[in-house]
Specification:
The structure holds two protein chains of two kinds.
Chain A (H helix, E strand, L loop, with lengths): L5 H25 L16 H7 L2 H34 L5 H13 L2 H14 L6 H24 L5 H8 L4 H30 L2 H6 L6 H9 L5 H26 L17
Helix pairs in contact in A: 1-11, 2-11, 3-6, 3-8, 3-10, 4-6, 6-8, 7-8, 8-11
Chain B lengths: L1 H10 L1 H30 L3 E2 L5 E2 L5 H8 L1 H34 L5 H13 L2 H12 L4 H8 L14 H11 L1 H14 L2 H9 L4 H12 L1 H16 L3 H7 L6 H9 L5 H33 L1
Antiparallel strand pairs in B: 1-2
Helix pairs in contact in B: 2-15, 3-15, 4-8, 4-9, 4-12, 5-9, 6-8, 6-13, 8-13, 9-12, 10-11, 12-15, 14-15
The chains are: A mainly alpha, B mainly alpha.
């Protein structure tokens, strides 16, 4: 370990400021009594929040986002759980190729995924809407979920499962009574983070929603009009607080019951 | 027969692994590989009228792409912006990761969570917050005018390439931080101490020991920033104006109001190929570099 280095400490703190301050302007201006986002602040008001609450389109978009988010997170976490188990438990031919294939959606520009799904969806003659958006989100969330779950399952003592089988439990019983309780914090973390990814996702939704707007699409549509901005600020502030809470909960869960040295953060990077 | 299959299955790890993997592989095939294949084949078609597409094979769309100066210049600009963003992000994030890996003793975990937290808040909102900061009536301009330092707002802040670069650097920072930190944290500090004991200066130690050992993280960060920023749509659309427009904005237009699906598909394919080429160059250079070091 190095001794103290104040220059580097100050630099690091400035960098933190650079990361956080821009995002903090949303909540600050959401309480500002003006239509423009400029200094000096003109007065405190909660009017923008009331205005936000009164928008029925917003309620619809919120509900759409919640539906898509729940389906996308449950399906991608389930798919990712099986895949993570395969990679953590077995050595097999084609392992690297399979891993790479599942990771691709996370590695290519999102706009290309969106365009590809759009083309096939239109060619099949299906209607755009929340279904293709959900499909895109499942595809996009699965690699994230898998990284989180592999980090949790790796180092898991698989002899516990074998012991359970030897003692007469069937495969399902073993999963339910032995594996699931041990994986559970990872599974919940994966559900929460996938939900957040889907909830905030914009590009796929932009190409695939048609007329059923998700919440980011709703905000996008409102951002163009200056007079509508204040309630978008209020909405943004609410979303930031909500997201932060869920993500902190997920991080805490992820590290629950793990040894200190395994307790990493967010996503485990594989080389 | 069933018995034979069951006993084969019980002994075969690959069979078990692939049955566990099958949902994920089916998903990737149906929702990505086949759609990408179809997108590729669309790039060889022709848009005849607003609703009609001629399905006979032609490479004319690729010729169109390279004959339209606008598209080529947007491709070059996308790559250029991404390179600048990647470089700036690496340069600014590296010292932070270095500090956390080697100086922070207590609560490292907390530092890391705080560092990655903004990344989880909505991308759209992070980009939007820069609009608040850089706008003509935004935070910077209104503060400067209030302080009497300016009489007219600075217009170059908004709707420009600079605005896009600043915003992307902020938006993708967390992506650079993770791999950089992981690779720095893995370095055995006794190597650094040994180098210093043997008389190397701090700078020499960094240049000869720390930097080469953190190379995997640097490469990871380069790829993980470059790839998504090349195809970024939101930032140039919200903050780019005409000056900061990127290829993805044109792709969106071809699938939207311009309605030329084949040309859009060809542009997307070219973007994908560009990403693949850059990935290969970066991985190849790393391999060569690591070989030279070890």
């Amino acid at each position: 370990m190095e001794q103290k280095n104040n220059t580097l400490l100050i630099y690091t703190l400035l960098y933190f400021a650079f990361l956080y301050i821009p995002v903090l302007f949303l909540p600050i201006f959401s309480f500002n009594d003006a239509n423009y986002m400029s200094f000096p602040l003109s007065g405190f008001t909660t009017e923008h929040y009331e205005e936000m609450w009164a928008k029925t389109n917003l309620h619809k978009a919120l509900w759409a986002s919640i539906k898509v988010g729940i389906v996308a997170s449950v399906v991608s976490t389930t798919i990712a759980l099986f895949a993570a188990k395969a990679f953590a438990r077995y050595k097999f031919r084609g392992q690297n190729i399979s891993y790479g294939a599942i990771m691709i959606p996370f590695l290519i520009p999102e706009i290309i995924l969106a365009v590809a799904i759009l083309v096939i969806w239109l060619s099949l003659g299906f209607k755009l809407g929340l279904v293709p958006v959900t499909l895109g989100h499942i595809l996009f969330c699965t690699p994230f979920a898998m990284l989180i779950l592999i980090a949790r399952i790796e180092g898991f003592d698989f002899s516990l499962e074998e012991a359970s089988r030897d003692l007469g439990e069937n495969a399902w019983g073993t999963f339910y009574r032995v594996s699931l309780p041990l994986y559970l914090p990872g599974i919940i973390a994966s559900l929460l983070l996938s939900f957040i990814i889907s909830f905030d996702e914009f590009v796929l939704a932009f190409f695939l929603t048609g007329s059923d707007a998700t919440l980011p699409m709703y905000m996008w549509a409102q951002m163009r009009f200056i007079q509508k901005l204040p309630h978008v600020l209020a909405l943004g502030a609410v979303i930031i607080v909500f997201t932060t809470f869920i993500v902190l909960l997920a991080f805490w869960l992820r590290n629950l019951g793990q040894g200190k040295e395994k307790a990493e953060f967010g996503i485990k990077i594989h080389e | 027969m069933l018995q034979v299959w069951k006993s084969f299955y019980a002994r075969s790890d690959p069979a078990k692994a692939y049955s566990l993997l099958s949902p994920a592989l089916i998903l990737v095939t149906l929702a990505m590989l086949i759609p990408l294949g179809l997108m590729l084949s669309f790039s060889f078609f022709t848009q005849v009228s607003f609703t009609e597409i001629d399905y006979s094979f032609t490479i004319q769309r690729y010729i169109d792409f390279f004959q339209k100066n606008l598209l080529v210049s947007l491709l070059i600009k996308s790559v250029k912006i991404s390179f600048i963003v990647t470089f700036v992000t690496l340069l600014t994030a590296y010292p932070v990761c270095y500090y956390i890996a080697f100086y922070v003793k207590k609560n490292k975990m907390l530092w890391l969570v705080l560092l990655t937290l903004p990344f989880w808040t909505s991308y759209l909102l992070r980009v939007f917050s820069w609009k608040i900061i850089l706008g003509t009536k935004g935070v910077i301009n209104s503060s400067l005018i209030n302080a009497g330092l300016l009489s007219e707002p600075l217009t170059f802040l908004m709707y420009s390439e600079t605005a896009v670069i600043i915003t992307l650097t902020h938006a993708w920072a967390a992506f650079a931080l993770l791999p950089l930190y992981v690779s720095l944290d893995k370095i055995d500090f006794s190597l650094i101490e040994a180098a210093r004991d043997l008389g190397l200066s701090r700078l020499e130690t960094f240049w000869k020991i720390t930097l080469p050992l953190s190379l995997p993280g640097i490469i990871g960060a380069i790829l993980i920033i470059f790839i998504p920023t090349v195809g970024d749509y939101v930032t140039p659309a919200l903050l780019g104006g005409t000056d900061g427009r990127m290829l993805s904005n044109m792709i969106q237009a071809y699938f939207g109001k311009v309605n030329n699906l084949p040309l859009g598909a060809a542009s997307a394919t070219i973007m994908l190929i560009t990403v693949a080429i850059v990935t290969m160059i970066v991985s190849y250079t790393t391999k060569k570099l690591t070989q030279r070091i070890s």
